[in-house]
Amino acid sequence: MKIGLIARKFDENSGSGVWIYAEKLSKKLEEKGIEVYKIEQKGSGLNSNRYHKFFHDWINIPLECLKLYLFENVKKFHFLSENQGVTIPLLNLLKVETIASFHDLMRTPNIQNSSDRRHFCLIYWLASRATKIHCNSSETKKDLLEKIKTNKEIKIIPVNYREFKPLKKKSKEIVLGYLGALNDRKRPEKLLEIEKELISRKKMLRIDIWGKGGGFKKIKQKKKNLIKLKGFAPEGKLNEIYSSFDFLLFPSAYEGLGLPVIESAMCGVPIFIYSDAKIPPEVKDLCIICKNSKNMIEKILRMKAVEKKLLKRELIKKAEKFSFDKNVEKMISFYKLKY
Known about the structure:
With 339 residues, this protein is α/β, with parallel strands linked by helices. The chain is built from 14 helices and twelve strands. The strands form two sheets. Strands 2-1-3-4-5-6 form a six-stranded parallel beta sheet, with helices on both faces. The longest helix has 22 residues, at 50-71.
């Protein structure tokens, strides 16, 4: 089998989940005997401006795909992000198979600028013209059906590219942890609520916060002595960081999938979320749902050692279905599927 993989970048050290997955997937497919042809943006990706991205998505990708079609006889193209799928209608004219991966559609409701919103709606609509559509979760599938109104059959394959295991905790101190971006969608202000609730109960539990973003400064200004701001979490230390937590605090309002939930479960660390959050059912099953910050602290403080030990085993077992090898096998089966 020959396949063209299209992504902004293929880079395991980028810090971007999609780019890390793109590179790991390409390597794994090659190990399975599949001929992989990569198309990516030249030069810097994260720091490239919108004109570089526009040129890559609208001009470079079509030319590269056409070249692979004409000279390498590639007739299957997988767009690893919905954002690069603008070439799909053109490729459909050539009667080749196109696959689009949708990770989330959160840009459309959250962008204030109406022209930018229309731009992304157009991109999502073009990507939804693919022969096959893959969504990261049933939540993303629901958004796609409601907002883009595609009539294509959609396959749900949760994308996880990391393999973690429980490590021995070095500190005896009970640690509540957070790992992820600190933007508005992640609701970092909830972490301040949790700290306030602990102080009111005179429970001096440490809260380690790993991540960067707009909320970092706000937390730094308003936090008390329980919160420890750790900064950016290096890729090579993620397993160790998750295993340093006794509990993962996950206050996010919305997730396309929720990788920190899966990664925490792999390490056997219980995950706490809020009942008003839109978390896909694929990962919600791994979480303990709380009404508010007060309820969250109550559940954490009530959890006995035996209960936590049993929950740890259950989480590790449930997380096995998200293994990268299983993901790749499902993706290859999807490539071979005839619609």
